[in-house]
Amino acid sequence: MGAGLSILREADLILDLAAAASSAIHFNDLGLDPVALDLGFFQLKWYSLAYLAGILIGYWYLLRLVAQPGSPMARRHADDMIFYATLGIIIGGRLAYVIFYQPEILANPLDIFKLWNGGMSFHGGAVGVSLGILYMAHKEKLSWLRIHDYVACVVPFGLFFGRLANFVNGELWGKATDVPWAIVFPTGGDVPRHPSQLYEAGLEGIVLFLILAFAFWKTKARYKPGMLVGIFLLGYGCFRFAVEYFREADAQLMEFAARTGLHMGQWLCIPMILAGLYFILTAKGRRLRVEPVAGSASVA
């Protein structure tokens, strides 16, 4: 009897989704193309432009932050950060993706360098950027934690453009749903799905940026080392953890998600959430008098 009811429920769900698919938004009707510019011998993809936009706009915003009194670094240090951040994003992001999401690539190590055939992990990119900051801070004798605070404020730009690029590529879509804004993606079968890429762009990009901007410009958070990076880690971790409930797990990790009860992305967010809480709760104890590196007025 129980098995029969289960089969009936699954049949009803299939019929509901089939009906929803007929009225859902079809990705192909949006006229989106992963290739922004095609010259025949050369293709420029939106994904590449997303990385460039995130880095360049993030750099512009970082210069605005550094220009305020009490900055932990000078303009020349911000210039160096572009180099270290780019290396960290590419190397850390790719290695983490291979290790945590597609370890079979390790069977052919040269495939690790084929960025056009694989993915990137934000968690790995974040670790890569962090290592770059640690190196630069040690080299220049700067406060590594306060630099992290400033860099954390610009990361949402990259997250926003990156998730938009995921959407344009029609990848990393969400679970099946019948919500009015559901989209039928070409690689997701004839099933309406959550546009989870847009959920992440809104939360990890826009909302997280606004929270950090308020903390930086309207409070004394930047004078409490670790506060801003803590807000970022906690905010990103919570937003990503929540959206993963609407996002389909990577095909090669479906079994892992079913076995552990959480997606790989959620497991990787747990240490971020814990670290964020730690930095926020201990930031007050690190409150210090900051002499201006940029600007003119002293900061108490």
Note down, in words, how this protein is organized.
The protein starts with a helix and ends in a 17-residue tail after the last helix. It is globular. A hairpin with a 7-residue loop joins strand 4 and strand 5 (192-193). The strands form 2 sheets. A 3-stranded mixed beta sheet has the order 1-4-5. Strands 2-3 form a two-stranded antiparallel sheet. With 300 residues, it is mainly α. Helix 2 packs antiparallel against helix 3 (75-101) and helix 6 packs antiparallel against helix 7. It has helices at residues 2-23, 46-66, 75-101, 122-140, 144-152, 155-168, 196-218, 227-243, 254-260, 264-283; strands at residues 25-26, 35-38, 43-45, 183-184, 192-193. It has 10 helices and 5 strands; from the N terminus they run H-E-E-E-H-H-H-H-H-E-E-H-H-H-H.
In DSSP terms (H or I, runs of 4 or more residues), the helix count works out at 10
Shape descriptor: globular
Q: What is the averaged pLDDT score?
A: 86
> How does the major sheet shape up?
3 strands, mixed
Low-confidence stretches: 294-300
How many beta strands in the DSSP annotation?
Answer: 5
Portion in strands: under 5%
CA-atom Rg in angstroms? 22 Å
The chain-level structural class is mainly alpha
H-E string: HEEEHHHHHEEHHHH
Termini gap: 72 Å
Helix content: 55-70%
- Walk across the major sheet and give the strand order: 1-4-5
